[in-house]
Amino acid sequence: GGEPHTLGLFDTADYPQTDLFLVYFSVVSPSSFENVKEKQVPKITHHCPKTPLLLVGTQIDLKDDPSTIEKLAKNKQKPIITPETAEKLAHDLKAVKYVECSALTQKGLKNVSDEATLTALEPPEPKKSRRCLLL
Q: What range does the record give for the signal peptide (predicted)?
């Protein structure tokens, strides 16, 4: 409806009243992608296990940048993170969705904002665990 909402952006996982976490990584930085799995999301799920998260790939403008590709190869790093790889991680982490954007070109920024707003205002229903009862 027409009711006002407040958006607060914080760089921490220590807010128990949080409606949504946006977890960012650079699609041209394999180490930032690994950091999502190893550090960021475990901290979030420890402090706020029921709060939804949106996985966001940034710097998509650099995917086809020759110097970025060369730098990754020179450092013997994995190739650029593909949308399919990121979507699999989002699924594994039980993220609401994976979206991509570029702050430089502004491609995808509105989509990130829209998805974050929708998720915060209409959070997904928690999945009921199925229990097996053996008699």
A: none
